[in-house]
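cron nightly-structures :: item 1 of 1
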Amino acid sequence: MKFKFDSLLLIFFSTFSVFNVLGQETDSIPVDQTKKSSFLLGGYGEVAMQKMFYSDNVARYAYPQSHKDANHGRFDLPHVVVYMAYDFGKGWKFSSEIEFEHGGTGTTYEIENAETGEYETEIEKGGEVALEQFWIEKSFSQTANIRMGHIIVPVGLTNLEHMPNEFFSVLRPEEDASILPCTWHETGISFWGRAKDWRYEVQFLAGLDAERFNNVNWIQGGSTSPYEFKIANTYAGAFRVDNYSVKGLRMGLSGYYGHSAPNSLKWERYKNQGIKGGVFVGAFDAVYNDNNILARASVIYGHLVNSYAISTINKKLPKAGPFSRTDVASDVLSYYFEAGYDILKLFPKLRNSDDKLYVYGHYGFYDSMYKTDRRIQAKGWCKKTIISGGINYYPMKEIVVKAEYAFRKLDAPYNNEPTLSLGIAYSGLFIK
């Protein structure tokens, strides 16, 4: 379906957000209850070019010997976001965000001459358009705020800091993004605040959908709904605590727990067997930014109860439905560490006031089938080690140019997967 240009503009300027701009969370700014209403408009976006020196054939893991010498390439718009916030005053604030992933989607009506002039709907391009945030907040003080609506679930480092200037890689770190929803957004209620060197947040959310779990991405698909509504037969909770007591360092603990089996459309198939599908996620992350050094660390561990029963049921789901129908692991693990140094500090004559040039290295690991029920055979290709390095150049604080070489190492007999990536991104406020 085609939209008129003025309708598209209406969508743009009615569904934006300002949750996190240039690495600074807006909710960490003290709220002045007496100030006048204000409007904020901003956005972020990424352009990526990649050359993958490995096969993209669907059978490359099933028959690795047959797919040794191959490569492919991609141009992509991973995320393009426009956001808006409005402070009504007296502690009331509105914010929303619309995201175009991979350039959005495109369909059109056309007359098919080869079929006697019939009208057909054609898919012109892939992608996704998602309302990632839409909430209203009441601030009572810096230590007590309540947010209601569609909100970010800040479990793990990448879900907290997902702007393109908040990670070195051209794409979001795959260690986090491969096992958790990213960016994870749910409809619910959040209570948060900040006191001295501590920030806390607790959330009440809808649970995940066990029908959409799989072996490659564990619970990732369970946060989205293919229906016109999000199933909420059971609920979940999430929390995050951050500490800022050391200069230049932020350390955080976050977690999630909720039942997943009852949140399926035909939940009786799980209930009749007494399956609840509890999901536990625990995460630690830290960011250090001082002395010309920028370093990040992230560790995530997850556990799914009833993984064998869920796998057995899911593999029997209808082929026509939006299901992966694969085994699901009981436990997953991911971690990474990256550090960069601003080398322009070594050459003051070459450096302008806002210029930065980070040379960085990255090491990580993730396994979406880290542990499985004894009746489920883990897929060896789900275990990956990531070694990468490159540069991030900031000609100004809103724009970053990236170059990266990443080596994805797999255990034998699977082939390793090197990638060369180039990207440019921005993140900033247009009106403030």
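cron nightly-structures :: done
The longest strand covers residues 356-371.
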